[in-house]
User: Fold this.
Amino acid sequence: MFDYTAPEQLLNDRVILITGAGDGIGRAAAIDTARLGATVILLGRTLEKLEAVYDEIENAGYAQAAIYPLDLRTATDEDYISLAQVIEDEFGGLDGLVHNASILGQRTPLSNYESRTWNLVMHINATAPFMMTQALLPLLEVSKDASIIFTSSGVGAQGKAYWGAYSVSKFATEGMAQVLADETENTSKIRVNIVDPGATRTSMRAQAYPGENPLQNPLPKDIMPVYQYLLGPDSIGITGQRFKAQ
Ligand code: NDP
Assistant:
């Protein structure tokens, strides 16, 4: 596991948006980030799941969260501009952006891969984070030290049979993170890094490996140290790097 112990209140006074915050790793990151003092914007497509996470944060007495339902499949440039406007109006800025939401798509050879699914996976996993980042950059640029995390995968660094568009979308994600890190390095205080969560006990993992015993993988809450490190001030100056959560 990535070795980092977060001090209490590490993320006090930070506003952090997490996509796919209703389930899996995003849900764990949202709860943990609120526990450490941040105002978390819970973005996702299923309102009930976001409400459940909101309630969990509220009941634990952590910093109050906010819900922003948005489907990355259909969201337009205008939707992302509205998101930026709402964040500015409600919170006055943005200090962290965790691109976590993704879909798996088909697990099949390229020879058999449906182009419709291909486009959907590429859009949700790579194009939507690009559109959202572009709209939120002006807010991140005025933060005292903003952190953007892009979520990749083992198959985002080494292609593997039957992983199709998911693998290619994660290569694209890593490329985008590198481009943005290079563009922001000397022009802003924004840091941009990549996290590969590693095998983690979520519904996506179960979908990808139906025959596997889920108990052999850590829970999402166990892989939080790398997210804590990258979102908090201890990672100031670290940009363009790829981190393994485990
Ligand atoms: P889950 O499937 O458990 O959660 C994915 C989240 O993304 C859900 O909250 C889901 O919402 C949301 N989401 C999916 N599509 C959309 C959409 N169109 N609009 C808005 N939100 C959407 O996945 P994990 O927690 O396992 O994965 C999180 C990240 O980690 C992903 O980027 C994944 O690729 C990566 N990863 C995971 C690994 C693992 O072993 N679990 C290993 C390597 C990488 P809803 O619940 O409403 O469907």
User: Anything to note?
Assistant: Residues 15-241 form a domain with the Rossmann fold fold (CATH 3.40.50.720).
